[in-house]
TrEMBL record:
GO terms for cellular component: mitochondrial inner membrane. GO terms for biological process: electron transport chain. The keyword S-adenosyl-L-methionine does not apply. Keywords: Electron transport, Membrane, Mitochondrion, Mitochondrion inner membrane, Respiratory chain, Transit peptide, Transport. Signal peptide: none annotated. This is NADH dehydrogenase [ubiquinone] iron-sulfur protein 4, mitochondrial. It is found in: Mitochondrion inner membrane. InterPro entries: NADH_UbQ_FeS_4_mit-like (IPR006885), NDUFS4-like_sf (IPR038532). It is a peripheral membrane protein.
């Protein structure tokens, strides 16, 4: 038995104004704010236009038996009851922005693999091992997983610490404690940079193939 749920398209009140009359400052402010919010939402959207709520509105009422969708969706029994993880992708550790960290992703856990006896390659029989499903909202991802009969383990993102003004690129080469010592004591901090071999050349002359002498260098030594 399949239960049918009625869909209703939500009413979206678009802000419109007539250009025949002089525009009011508050109207322009509201219009520009709405355009800005729509542009930001469109930039962070990972779904195609036909899969968004504007074209395909969500269910108004929650489904009583969401797992029944898996029976008619074409998904076989081999994925029913599988465990998936839901998380937000983290920012790349390189010098990149947070543009690709606003959505949620669903991934399946990795099952046991084996080594191919002929070539030594790793092999497996799990067709959804590399499957990645992206969603704009956490609730949509959980609802989709429940309709497929999957068990969801949610990993909420940790709150990022604000390092603005606390760290600098120079800390990769100069420790923070040394930098603070320089700011506090100035030239008196030169003792931190003293080294027994400081100021000496670290160039090492290479030996000849048989080890019976040094390789002649360019310049005056090459003529000797």
């Amino acid at each position: 038995m399949i239960r049918a749920v009625a869909r209703t398209r939500p009413s979206t009140g678009k802000l419109c104004r007539s250009f025949s009359a002089p525009a009011q400052p508050e109207d322009d402010t509201a219009l520009m704010q709405q355009i800005k919010e729509e542009m930001v939402a469109r930039r962070h959207n990972v779904l195609p236009p036909h899969a968004t709520d504007d074209q395909n509105p969500s269910f108004v009422e929650p489904m009583l038996h969401p797992e029944e969708c898996a029976l008619v969706s074409g998904v076989g029994e081999w994925t029913k009851g599988r465990k998936v993880i839901l998380y937000k992708p983290t920012r790349n550790q390189m010098q990149s922005t947070r543009a690709f960290t606003h959505h949620w992703e669903i991934r399946f856990g990795t099952r046991a693999n084996w080594q191919n006896p002929l070539m030594g390659w790793n092999a497996g029989n799990d067709p959804v091992a590399d499957l990645v499903a992206k969603f704009n909202k956490k609730e949509d991802a959980i609802s989709f997983a429940h309709r497929q009969g999957w068990t969801v383990e949610v990993f909420d993102p940790k709150e990022e610490e604000d390092f603005d003004g606390k760290i600098a690129y120079s800390h990769n080469f100069l420790p923070l404690d040394v930098e603070n010592h320089l700011k506090k004591y100035g030239k008196k901090s030169s003792v931190l940079f003293k080294h027994p071999t400081g100021g000496h050349s670290h160039w090492v002359k290479t030996l000849k193939y048989h080890g019976d002498g040094e390789v002649a260098q360019h310049g005056g030594e090459a003529k000797q």
